[in-house]
Every structure is written in C-alpha cells, then in structure tokens.
Design a protein that fits this description.
Number of domains: 3
Largest sheet: 5 strands, antiparallel
Radius of gyration: 20 Å
Structural class: alpha+beta
Number of strands: 21
Shape: globular
Number of helices: 6
Oligomer: single chain
CATH class of the largest domain: Alpha Beta
Strand order of the largest sheet: 6-7-15-11-12
Order of helices and strands: EEHEEEEEHEHEEEEEEEEHEHEEEHE
CATH topology of the largest domain: Uridine Diphospho-n-acetylenolpyruvylglucosamine Reductase, domain 3
Strand content: 25-35%
CATH architecture of the largest domain: 2-Layer Sandwich
Length: about 300
C-alpha cells in the first residue's frame, strides 16, 4: 500500500469499483482512484506515478472502456474537473477542456451559432477520449473529431505541458498519436452557421443513431470497421450472430457491433463473446476484426 502526500489525499479513493464509472457497468476495484481538482494536482500525481513506475489509466466518462472485472493495480485518474468551455466568436473557435462531454460541446457550439460539431451527436464520452480515439461517424458521411481540431494542449508523463498544432498530430481511423499524452484541452475550428439549420442537422443525425435505441449497458461499437467500405456490424450480422451470448454478454439485436451487458456480465464474458465473433467473421469472410473499445487490464 502506497503512502500519498497529504495534499493529494482529499482527491483519492482506494479500491474504487470501476463498474461505477464505465458505460458497460463492468470493472473491479482499482487500487487508487484520483479526481484532481486542479492542473497542479494532476501534474503532481503524474510525476509521482511516473517516478514510481505505477500503472496509470486515464478516464473521462468511461464510454468506450472494458475494465477487468478482477480489478486493476495502479492508478486511475478521472478528468471530470477539467470541464470548462470558452467560445471565441471572432475566430469561430470553441476551446474546451478534456473532461467536457461531447453533448455539452455540441450545445455550446449551437448556442453560439457555430457549425461543425453536429456529427458528434449521440457519440458518448468526453473530449479527451474522443481526441485519443478520433471519434466520429462513417454514415451518412465520414467525419471525425480530428477534422475540426486546430490545436491540442497535452501533458506528457514527465510533467511537461505541450501545445500540439494540427500538423503535429496524426489522426487515423479511430486512433490518433495523442494516446501517449494526457489531454488537457483543445481548440476546435468551426464555421459560422444558422442556429435553426444547425438544430435541424442535429435532429436528423440523432434519429439515425442506433446507440440511442439500445437500453442495456454497452460501450458503443466494439470493433472497428475493417476498412471504409466494410462494416463490422454487417459482417457480424451476416454471420447470424445477433443475440449470440457468452455469460451475461449479448450481441445486440438492434446493432450487431454492439455488445450489451444484460445483467452481471464480466469482462471475461465480453472478451469471450468478442473472441467468438472474431473467429466466426474470420472463418466466413477471412477478415480479422480489431477492437474499437479500450481494454483495461494489468
């Protein structure tokens, strides 16, 4: 058991269950859970963790995380207190900290008559996680968070703050080069728009989102699409796997690329079901599916 400095203990919980903080409602206890109240606290924790070589995990809203049901050794830092938004109307820019939810960003942009964030409607999670995985949509058009990024402020694991311009960041399909950093904030470059038209676009996209129609705990799309023209969900569906189960983990009948927790599913149940899905898709289509969700284990 590690002794932490007194000035950090007020933001520390021990053996906090991760199931309380993930959309999947899955995850055992983590040794240390921190919710730093300031950047100074965050930096101090990072420096201590780095110096002592303690496993570190960073969480926002926990929307795309499968955490080990047996628990985790190390530290989880939740960035919920990095939650400020600012609008620069002259430059058509929105500046948001990592812990801000995508829904709040969409609302703030709409209120300021700024267009460009509508595609994020229905994508769960916070800005930090969305930047790291380059969250986005592939239908009815292809759009990702990286498309509207101007710059990102990050903290590296030696405690140094860096400003990364768009050209310094590699954004790919459901991934980016930001995973080696802790996101602090980002500037999103938007366009002046009409508030009513923005609202219409949001409502159209909202109706198209499958995730809003799935009522069991889930982490969104489990697998990445193999390529731009090939849908993981359609491949899984073609294998007849809707409704397939492993323990309390089930393939959603609404969308084959969603796995739902129908009761007391463990991380082992979800991983077992993912393994079965991968095996069937490989057998039938010779396609290897790769996870889109983040799998946390020691």
């Amino acid at each position: 058991m590690m002794n932490w400095p007194n000035h950090l203990r007020h933001s520390l919980l021990k053996n906090e269950r991760l199931s309380r903080h993930t959309y999947f409602k899955i995850g055992g206890p983590v040794e240390y859970w921190f919710e730093p109240l300031s950047f100074a606290e965050l930096k101090n924790i990072i420096l201590l963790v780095h110096k002592r070589k303690i496993p570190l995990f960073v969480i926002g809203l926990g929307s795309n995380i499968l955490a080990d049901s047996r628990g985790l050794k190390g530290v989880v830092i939740r960035l919920n207190h990095l939650n400020k938004i600012k609008i620069d109307a002259e430059k058509n820019e929105l500046i948001a900290q990592a812990g801000v939810s995508l829904n709040r960003i969409i609302k703030a942009a709409q209120d300021a008559s700024l267009s460009g964030t509508e595609f994020m409607i229905g994508i769960p999670g916070s800005l930090g996680g969305a930047l790291i995985m380059n969250a986005g949509i592939s239908s009815p058009y292809l759009m990702s968070v990286g498309d509207i990024v101007k710059e990102v402020v990050v903290l590296d694991y030696s405690g140094k703050v860096r400003l990364l311009k768009r050209k310094d960041i590699r954004f790919g399909y459901r991934n980016s080069s930001l995973g080696k950093f802790i996101i602090l904030s980002a500037v999103l470059k938007l366009n002046k728009g009409d508030k009513q038209n923005i609202r219409k676009k949001i409502n159209i996209l909202k109706k198209m989102r499958v995730s809003g129609k799935i009522f069991y705990p889930n982490a969104g799309c489990v697998f990445k699409n193999p390529n731009l023209g090939l849908s993981a969900g359609k491949l899984i569906d073609a294998c007849g796997l809707k409704g397939a189960s492993f323990g309390d983990a089930f393939v959603s009948k609404q969308h084959a690329n969603f796995i739902v927790n129908k009761g007391c599913a463990s991380s082992g149940d979800v991983l077992g079901l993912m393994g079965n899905i991968k095996k069937e898709v490989k057998k039938r289509f010779n396609v290897i599916l790769k996870p889109e969700i983040k799998i946390w284990k020691n």
